[in-house]
Structure prediction request, 968 residues.
Amino acid sequence: MSEAIKIKLSKKDLESDQDVRWCPGCGDYAILATVQRTLAQLGIQRENTVFVSGIGCSSRFPYYMNTYGFHTIHGRAPTIASGLKITRPELDIWVITGDGDGLSIGGNHMIHALRRNMDLKIILFNNQIYGLTKGQYSPTSVPGTRAPSTPTGSIDHPLNPISLALGAGATFIARAADTDAKLMGKILEEAYKHRGSVFIEMLQNCPVFNDGVWEGVKDDPTGKQIKLEQGKPLVFANGTKGIALGAGMQPEIVEVVDGDTSKLLVHDERGSVVYGHLLAQLVLPDFPIPMGVLYRTDKPTYDQLAHAQMNDAIAKQGPGDLSKLMYSGMVWEVGADGTRH
Amino acid sequence: METKHLDRVVIRFVGDSGDGMQLTGSEFAKAAAEAGNDISTFPDFPAEIRAPAGSLFGVSGFQLHFSSSEIHTPGDAPDVLVAMNPAGLKTNLKDLVEHGTLIVNTGAFIEANLKKASYASNPLEDGSLDKYKVHAVDINHLTLTALAESELSTKEKGRAKNFFALGLVFWMYSREPENEIRRIHQQFANKPGFGDANVKVFKAGYHYGETAEVFQTVYKVPPAPFKPGMYRNITGNEAIALGLVVGADLAGKKLFYSGYPITPASSILHSLAKYKNFGCLTFQAEDEIAAMGAALGAAYGGSIAVTASSGPGIALKGEAMGLGVMTELPVVILNIQRGGPSTGLPTKTEQSDLLQSLFGRNGESPMPVLAAKSPGDTFYCAIEAVKIATRYMVPVILLSDGYLANGSEPWALPNLSSLPRFDVTHRTDPENYFVYERDPETLARAWVIPGTPGLEHRIGGIEKDALTGDISYAPENHEKQTYVRQAKVDRIAQDIGELDLSGAESGDVLVIGWGGTYGSLRQAQQQFAAQGKSVSHAHLRWLSPLEPGLAKVIKNFKRVIVAELNMGQLRMVIRARFLIDVIGLNKIQGMPFKVAEVTAAIEKELSNSSAPLTTSSTQPMAESGQA
Prediction:
């Protein structure tokens, strides 16, 4: 993160001159607007900000940001972003990806960027469908999803993005919905401040190929969402219900009677990975889903460690001397008379 | 005891892949270099790390050619074969010259090993080795005897036996043992017990030669005349790593290297990982694609970005290489070729990735391609690749191969201050900036890096307007951009020097080659030239753009041979480019050309050269050009 004087920016300063080409009603518009507004409020340095993306609808995102941007190839954005981060640690790098780009073709890069604690802010737009290729089911689609490639319904089990990020070792994990600009803004601000691998699952609506996929979540924010607050019990339904831990560490929904929340789980974003996995398992239709910052921890980042090793080598061996390097190993001289010395 | 002077010797050490043959060979090579000989080495080992002991497929070999005159190859056939076990003897004896010298470790010629090597009877006893000068030495036993008082286990003692063989050949070729003893101590500084044992066994081998009276002659190969200067012994992969560090320095930039483990490229990453104090960052990526992606990211950020692999890994990198072509970022991609397709022959050499380099990406995706000709030449090629990549803003492929990567030669150290600098600058002026505005000379776009205020812009793999860099699907624009990407590569011809031609510019036979076959081809041509025959050799350093000097000479010969370790990939390119028929000399055995194979092919064309050329272009590929 750049530690420089904050310049007053407006949302407009972060809009590029390109026409936004998403379908009317796409959830991406709201995410773009919130990112632009939040980063402007944070007073980022545009020249030190880079948006890197893969392929898919969401991956057009960098073209619309008036920052540096690199629209790469399918699934590989974390690799390009990693090379950039390692060599240019001072840059703020955001990776924009989707459920197909980031969890299917690019799944391998995703887990490795996260496990290395690469200092990247990865926003995964999850609409449970392939949009740009016209509506095939994705790795997060619910079983039975009917799509051109699965006319009788998809049969594979979906992947849980939060579980994956936790398992891979992300150090900041959060979830927001495209319609909740307030929460999204808060999460983006926290993510911006975090040093390390950020994974944000953005629940996003595709009005053309998978309209209403998150409706259950969005239409009933009190009944189907748990708004996570640090140090507060996990409650929903206007505080009338909560999540407690039952036998076999199974989460269960309990009624809150007379405001007694003593049996409920209390949110701690710096809690254990086990707690994080427990939150990740809270999914519809059996549970309301947790929104906000699910997990965070502090660890040295890859670029910090790489540069520390480099600086250590310079301190111990002195700055590299090229002629010494060339002359290392078995070296001999042949004199003017052609004989060896 | 008689001392005989020899001009040159080819010696090959063979044994189990766990027998330490590579170490023995490279140590003996160091001694030859130290004594002032010209040397060329050819390590040849199986893909298995520790193949089952005694098996035929587990044999590891190291061939060394050392000479008192200039040499270009590791030699066609060994004069001396040191066989540590029956499997090694079985698989290598056919290569030994007639009446050649054979040193055999009799201790390994036990029933079980003979059976594993498919010997029906013991070759040491059945007379089958009668035509060779056989020295039967029980190296196993002599090694254990030498270490009788050592505290090492019997198994550990046994592992020192390669040093007995080394000591013995040191004595045979009158090498100074002191330096070797020092080297062994240095090498085993962390395990002094092993160091002492190895020295003891090395000395035992040396003294055995002196006292056993089985050898009537010792040999001396006098030093070769070298040009004055500083020298070191170097392998291709060591030299390429040095070239990258120096290249980045000449560009005034930091080096970033990303790779994924693959034979025979991995050792480049191992070298560079030790150069951290040069500001060099290395990154072992999760796969080949990630290594290419990370290199692109680093190039985008303003580093000298390099990735290396071999054919299978290059195939995986293909799409991301195309992204480099599209976004016009300077990246160097090293392909240390090996036998293919698929996993192919991981530890053997081949030149079969030429067409992959030229065309192996989707769409019209031209990239500059150059190839190194010798271990030491990889150093200069690496510098040149960095220079061209940054000057033209283009990804560059540098081809080496398993033979160059692992082979070594005495290398005249360059005077670093005499290497021309090519400092790279980045545009910082925001006035009138267009992403694809081009330098009129090189057609390069400006290398604008993140962190530069006022120059924020977006790039990507989708086609862009030829000036503004905005997304464009316009038909004419795509065609224009496609031709410009090719024109950029073509322009590189202006930076390519004279064609490396040995012999006259016209005549009977022209042999064309590229890459690691240089040594065999050049030596063959020189043999004909010495006999006054009209044979020339053109070595192509640049494959894309094709070496510009070739056009001037290629039509001046009655016969043109293209010699390469593949089915005829350069031949296909040359036929297409010049519309002339050329004859293929091809070998796909995972081995370099022998000089004799090249001279035979030239001889054949020389004797035919007055007859009209019967076109071979209608011949099926599989039947043309076999060596």
User: Anything to note?
Assistant: Chain A is about 30% helix and 20% strand.
